[in-house]
Amino acid sequence: MTTPLQYEAAVRYPWLRAAYHQASIVRQALADQEVAADPQAAAGPEDRLDRPDVMLGGRFPVDVVPDTDVSRSAHLARGYVNESQLMTYEVPSREFLAQIFQVEGS
Amino acid sequence: MITDVFSAEPGQLPGYREAGFPDPTGFGFPTIRARGLDPAALAILDALLSQAAPAEALESAATSPTDAPDLYRAPVITMVSARTVQLLPAVDQNQLTVLADDWAEYDELGGKSPIALRAFLDQAQELFRSAAANDRIVCVWNCL
To answer: Domain of life, per the record (chain A) (predicted)?
Structure first.
C-alpha cells in the first residue's frame, strides 16, 4: 500500500514514482501464490535493514530489480545474491508511472 | 530500494558525481548499508525528532542536487536534513529504543522490525556525530 505521504512524494518528486512502483512489485512477489505458501519466504534477517527482498525457503535470497545495468550491479555488490537470484522486471515508461500516480502532464 | 546512508565532505561531491555516483562504500565514504529508507521514511524520522510536519520534512528528504534524477539511469543522491543530523546524536540510549518503536509504527516503514531500526539508529548516531564534528554532509544513495 502506498501511504498518503508516499503518494504526495511521488506526485511532487517524479523520480520517486519508480521507487514506489518497485515497492509494489516486491509486494506482489511476496503475495505470489507459491511464495505466500512458503512459510519461510518473508524477507531475510529481521535484525538489519540491508537484507534481500524475499528469502525463499528461509535460505534462498531473491532481489527484485528493474532490468538495468545499474540495479543489477548494485544488488550483486551486496554479496547476498547472484545473477540467478535477481528477479527482473521491465522498465516502465514515464507515462505509465504518471498514470499510476494520476499525474497529468508529466 | 537500496538506501545507503553515507557522509562526505562537500568538496568531494563533484568528483563523486563525475564518477557516476557509484556505491559509496566502494568509493571510500563512511557508509551504513540499508534498504527501504526512502525520503518519506526519513521525513517521518525528521518529524519525530523535530516535531516538524512530515510533509514539510519531505522537502529536504526528497530533493536531489541532480537535474532530472532517474533511478533507471543512475543512483539518486538525496540529503539527510541538517536537523536530523544534529538532533539524532542527542537522543539517549533508552529513548533511542522508544524512537525506533515509534518509527516502526508508521506505514511508510513497510513493517520493518523495531530491532533493525534500532540497529540503524545506533549506527546513524555515530555517523552523524562524526559528520557534524568534521563538517561533513550526510547523504543517501538511492538505488533500485
So the answer is: Bacteria
Q: Which residue of B has its CA nearest to A72?
A: B144
**pTM to 2 decimals?**
0.94
Q: Are B72 and B134 in contact (CB under 8 A)?
A: no
For A1, the closest of B23, B38, B107 (CB atoms) is B107
Q: How many domains does chain A have?
A: 1
Q: Report the gap between the CA of A15 and the closest CA in chain B (Å).
A: 5
For B56-106, what is the HEC assignment? Answer: HHHHHHHCCCCCCCCCCCCCEEEECCHHHHHHHHHCCHHHHHHHHHHHHCC
Domains contained in chain B, CATH given: 2-143 (3.40.1760)
Query: Which stretches within chain A are classed as H helix?
Result: 4-12, 15-31, 33-36, 69-76, 94-100
* A20: in domain: yes
Domain residues for the domain of A76 are: 4-100
Residue A106: Cβ within 10 Å count: 12
How confident is the model over B70-124, as pLDDT tens digits? Answer: 999 999 999 999 999 999 999 999 999 999 999 999 999 999 999 999 999 999 9
Interface confidence (ipTM) of the complex: 0.92
